[in-house]
Amino acid sequence: MLRDFKKEKDMPKEIIEKYKGQVPDEIIEIWKNYGLGSFLNGYLRVINPDDYKELVEETYFRGKESIPLFTTAFADVITWQKNRYIGIIFYKEEDFDIIDSGMDFFFTDIYTEDSLRNDFFDLKLYEKAVKKYGELEYNQSFCFVPLLGLGGKKSVDNLDKGDTLTHIYLITELVGKVGIDD
After folding, report:
1. Backbone angles phi and psi of 125, in degrees to 5
2. pLDDT digits (tens, 9 = 90+) for 12-48
3. Distance in angstroms (rounded) separating the CA atoms of residues 83 and 99
4. Confidence grade of residue 180 (pLDDT, cut at 50, 70, 90)
């Protein structure tokens, strides 16, 4: 199902049990068979939902109905929403979108559908960033400096490595939450 998976550690059994019936069976199988780690050449990370749940609830207008599943190399969070949709929160751009309805083809499409990868993942910039700065650790993301919302440019020259959770909190404190007017 997941090509080139690089395992970080096992998903805690209590998390698997907690989210059974709340996330698609495909996610439960990934947690059981692969655990936590990265795939798609390190661009996507399988995460423990509980590590990101509070953040998503506090910073995204659909946060209470979203279960965080993955993060991207640019600190975007991919969620399972309303027990039906795969969503993505683009914190760096204060935006969000729905990737797909249902999980049936997601894991095939991320490897085979150029339109999905081009619309939701910035793989070309990621490849340039890895070439310039090296691979990311599991808990890291490439962070725009200065933040895009503060006038930064979306360029490989304006990237730095940072802790994913810390970076998302920084974005939401300095630039704003996604879909929430403070």
Report:
1. -65, -40
2. 999 999 999 999 999 999 999 999 999 999 999 999 9
3. 14
4. confident
CA distances from 21 to 27, 30, 31, 36, 86 (A): 11, 14, 14, 19, 16
Q: Which residues lie closer than 8 Å to 108 by C-beta, 6 or more apart?
A: none
Q: Which of these, 94, 104, 59, 62, lies nearest to 79 by C-alpha position?
A: 62
Residue listed under structure tokens 């490439």: 142
Element (H, E) at 140: strand 140-144
Domain edges within the chain: 6-174
CA distance 64 to 51: 14
Judged by DSSP in three states, 7 sits in strand
Residue whose structure tokens are 């423990």: 48
pLDDT confidence bin for 169, thresholds 50/70/90:
very high
- pLDDT given at position 181: 76
Token pair belonging to 23: 């996330």
**pLDDT score, position 182:** 62
Burial of 37 (0-12, 13-18, 19+ CB in 10 A): buried
